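Running this now, will post back.
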Amino acid sequence: MELQVQAIKDRLREETEAIPKTKKLIDASLRQQKKLQNMSLHVPYQMPDKMAISNLETSRCLFPEFSGQVSGSFEALKLDEEPAALPKEKKGRGAPPMWYVTGSELDSLSSYMRGRLTLEK
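Update: finished.
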């Protein structure tokens, strides 16, 4: 009988020690949820499939605090093998920058121009 009482007391002590940890986790998840909801408000309606390299480099310049985190997080994934040879770059112009068209801008176009626009353009 005493063993059962002692086991219950131990379990109760473990649960009371876990309460502050769970409160911290709940607070962190609520902060993350608010941050993600704020980010979702600023995402364009339709995202293009392709992303130009220049846009990627621009985002690294705009957010230097994240560029270090990204490069550091992939260091653990590097293999000891030598990387494969990169294909030769084509001479000429690079990809043009991708611009977004808002819904109001699209609505203001004539029907002829709306028909000419595609997701790739």
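The two ends are 77 Å apart (CA to CA). More later if anyone needs it.
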